[in-house]
Amino acid sequence: MSAWEAEVLPLNYTRAVPSERSRADGVRPRSYPYRAAAPNRPGGRWRGARCDRATARAASAGYGGAVLLSDRDIRAELDQGRVVLDPYEPAMLQPSSIDVRLDRYFRLFDNHKYPYIDPSQEQPDLTRLVEVTGDEPFVLHPGEFVLGSTFESITLPDDVAARLEGKSSLGRLGLLTHSTAGFIDPGFSGHVTLELSNVATLPIMLWPGMKIGQTCFFRLSSPAEHPYGSSQYGSRYQGQRGPTASRSWQSFHRTAV
């Protein structure tokens, strides 16, 4: 074992050592399961982010960086009240995520109010809120983009982050659940705004209460020092109810290039 291996291997979960049989049969051994935690090896065999001692301790304690929670872990977080989903239905739980449903509120863009969209300026009349009443669907036409929101509100602790993803069955119909804002920071509390787009060639009926996406959860290597909602970050969307229009102008920053 080289000096480099003696230093690096204890920082990884395990090292897969090929058996004599695998060597003889030419079976490719398993690679390092935590490759991103290893420093650059002299000679450039492979590269990864350098693993400090804190990361090594987190790995030995069972964290090992961000960990995707399984159904039993999600259920445990919900039962303990660390993760709050309101309302919560156990039937919505999936192997490594939980389904979320569509609320009845939407924000439509009034294209005649402004000649263009400027993220550096407040444009309060850029969107208008509409509510679908009764048993009627919201019709999303081809090429149209609207804001929606989850029926459930989500509250996360300071050591759990989440991601909202679309449903495969809806994606195959041409419905995009979000454009870029699928990440949910630790400490967030509120309804998740959806960026709904129809890339199909026919209108899509959106029924309030239908399954619109799935949320997966990640346990962080350590609790966030300043979770979402802290004064350091502004947290413009903390506690949002329903689809919330962009507030990019509140923190707009431009670097001279």
UniProtKB/TrEMBL annotation:
<comment type="function">
    <text>Bifunctional enzyme that catalyzes both the deamination of dCTP to dUTP and the hydrolysis of dUTP to dUMP without releasing the toxic dUTP intermediate.</text>
</comment>
<feature type="binding site">
    <location>
        <begin position="167"/>
        <end position="172"/>
    </location>
    <ligand>
        <name>dCTP</name>
    </ligand>
</feature>
<feature type="region of interest" description="Disordered">
    <location>
        <begin position="20"/>
        <end position="48"/>
    </location>
</feature>
<feature type="active site" description="Proton donor/acceptor">
    <location>
        <position position="195"/>
    </location>
</feature>
<dbReference type="GO" id="GO:0015949">
    <property type="term" value="P:nucleobase-containing small molecule interconversion"/>
</dbReference>
<dbReference type="GO" id="GO:0006229">
    <property type="term" value="P:dUTP biosynthetic process"/>
</dbReference>
<comment type="subunit">
    <text>Homotrimer.</text>
</comment>
<dbReference type="GO" id="GO:0033973">
    <property type="term" value="F:dCTP deaminase (dUMP-forming) activity"/>
</dbReference>
<keyword id="KW-0546">Nucleotide metabolism</keyword>
<feature type="binding site">
    <location>
        <begin position="193"/>
        <end position="195"/>
    </location>
    <ligand>
        <name>dCTP</name>
    </ligand>
</feature>
<comment type="pathway">
    <text>Pyrimidine metabolism; dUMP biosynthesis; dUMP from dCTP: step 1/1.</text>
</comment>
<comment type="similarity">
    <text>Belongs to the dCTP deaminase family.</text>
</comment>
<feature type="binding site">
    <location>
        <position position="185"/>
    </location>
    <ligand>
        <name>dCTP</name>
    </ligand>
</feature>
<dbReference type="GO" id="GO:0006226">
    <property type="term" value="P:dUMP biosynthetic process"/>
</dbReference>
<protein>
    <recommendedName>
        <fullName>dCTP deaminase, dUMP-forming</fullName>
        <ecNumber>3.5.4.30</ecNumber>
    </recommendedName>
</protein>
<dbReference type="Pfam" id="PF22769">
    <property type="entry name" value="DCD"/>
</dbReference>
<dbReference type="GO" id="GO:0008829">
    <property type="term" value="F:dCTP deaminase activity"/>
</dbReference>
<feature type="binding site">
    <location>
        <position position="214"/>
    </location>
    <ligand>
        <name>dCTP</name>
    </ligand>
</feature>
<feature type="binding site">
    <location>
        <position position="228"/>
    </location>
    <ligand>
        <name>dCTP</name>
    </ligand>
</feature>
<feature type="binding site">
    <location>
        <position position="240"/>
    </location>
    <ligand>
        <name>dCTP</name>
    </ligand>
</feature>
<feature type="region of interest" description="Disordered">
    <location>
        <begin position="229"/>
        <end position="257"/>
    </location>
</feature>
<dbReference type="GO" id="GO:0000166">
    <property type="term" value="F:nucleotide binding"/>
</dbReference>
<dbReference type="InterPro" id="IPR011962">
    <property type="entry name" value="dCTP_deaminase"/>
</dbReference>
<feature type="site" description="Important for bifunctional activity">
    <location>
        <begin position="182"/>
        <end position="183"/>
    </location>
</feature>
<keyword id="KW-0378">Hydrolase</keyword>
<dbReference type="InterPro" id="IPR033704">
    <property type="entry name" value="dUTPase_trimeric"/>
</dbReference>
<keyword id="KW-0547">Nucleotide-binding</keyword>
<dbReference type="InterPro" id="IPR036157">
    <property type="entry name" value="dUTPase-like_sf"/>
</dbReference>
